Amino acid sequence: MRRGQDARTTILLRFCVIQSSSYLPPIIPMPEDPITVLLIDDQPMIAEAVRRMLLPEKDITFHYCNDPTQALKVAKSCQPTIILQDLVMPEMEGLVLVRFLRAQNASTKDVPLIVLSSKEEPVIKAKAFALGANDYIVKLPDKAELVARIRYHSKAYVNLLKRQEAEAILQADNFRMRKELDMLRQMQQMILPTSEELSAIEDLEIAGYMEPADEVGGDYYDVLYTDGLVTIAIGDVTGHGLESGIVMVMTQTAVRTLKEIRELDPVRFLDALNRTIYKNVQRMNSEKNLTLVILTYSEGKISISGQHEETIVVRKGGHIERVNTMNLGFPIGLDEEITDFINHTIIELNVGDGVVLYTDGIPEAYNIDKKQYGIERLCEIISHNWHRSAEEIKQAIIDDVKGFIGKQKVFDDITLVVLKQLPFEKQELFEMLDSLEEEEEVFEEEELFEEVKQNTIKRKKLGFFRK
């Protein structure tokens, strides 16, 4: 049997030599990625036949391994884009080698594998395909057919490698971007007002909260305390992600700068802020803008300017007043000139009154039934909890919103600021002075009464002596 196979191989080899020297025009391949063929076969004459078939193909490099036990080592060295493998070899049964080549930890697990066999047996084919072979050829095939199959399978594998490389690059870029976004998110959290800063503010009790829906959010809030004036800002940049986060940080910096230079006029303040953000957004070639409201507080009075969500004013007993800010400003960064749209209104706060600011992530939050949280529910929670501290009110709102959302994904940033009016330091002084004045008046009245009483007694005595 072995001698018959050798004779057949010799005839095939002579046929390949004759074919390669004939006057038939060679197949001229289109420019392709280089192809590396590894043949695993114990018969050197088969290897020579295949080598001669592939020799005219300039983009194909041929490697040969006659020992199946060394196949994985040779494959690791030459990095084939396609493997041709015999099924009948003395050192190792062919299907066993297929199993080794397709092992999960093998470098060849994805390399296309064409099984070469001298037998046309469906059962053997089925077993080979079940183990991971890509193709099955009865050897030796026609040169044109062999080259075509090699090119087809090799191209698919090279495309797979390119996709894997592109995915690896994309994953690396995504990882790098996630790191950058994480840094920006940390920066956003770092520039929020601290609890120490909030507690140092006289006359007001303030609590704030911000949670982005994604790695980087577009919500912004800040509380600044300069020269006895408290400036509270809250805004919402369109969209999420890196650009929105950058615009948020730019806004925080611009607001702080304007407060540091003591710009108090709401029109000049928002006009300068808008021009700064607008020009930066234009330079970024971005379409980002934000709604923004600025509250300036001093001695029980709050000036509100800028366009944002409704400002909720809460009176001591929990009574709600909703201030529409639509006519108090214009989106920041949307247009260069907005001075004609800027206005302000003044709200007076008594002890126990306060204000709640929020972004649309709260009233527009959805639950699993696609129902919105709504401004009415927010007002009810505020009113019901208004007797509590600002921190407790804030937490009650957040707990209710998250309970409403449930397991539904949070699609928007959630930001909230609660402030309550404490007794004024000056007011306490005035009340103490008023109390002292009242005591002095009572004391003076008592002295005057005693003096009148003594004078009456003296007059009676004098009258008696006159009689």
Structural overview:
With 467 residues, this protein is α/β, with parallel strands linked by helices. It folds into two domains: 2-164, Rossmann fold; 195-426, Phosphatase 2c, domain 1 (4-Layer Sandwich). The chain is built from twelve helices and 15 strands. It has helices at 2-21, 44-54, 71-78, 94-101, 122-131, 143-190, 195-199, 242-260, 266-283, 375-385, 390-405, 425-466, and strands at residues 35-40, 60-65, 82-86, 113-117, 135-138, 204-211, 219-226, 229-237, 290-298, 301-305, 311-314, 320-323, 344-348, 354-358, 414-421. It has a five-stranded parallel sheet, with helices on both faces. It has a five-stranded antiparallel sheet with strand order 6-15-14-11-12. Strands 7-8-9-10-13 form a five-stranded antiparallel sheet, with helices on one face. Residues 1-5, 7-30 and 456-467 have low confidence and may be disordered.
Query: What is the number of helical segments per DSSP (H or I, 4+ residues)?
Result: 12
Distance between the termini: 172 Å
CATH architecture of the largest domain: 4-Layer Sandwich
Low-pLDDT sequence parts: 1-5, 7-30, 456-467
Q: How many separate domains?
A: 2
CATH superfamily membership of the largest domain: PPM-type phosphatase domain
CATH topology of the largest domain: Phosphatase 2c, domain 1
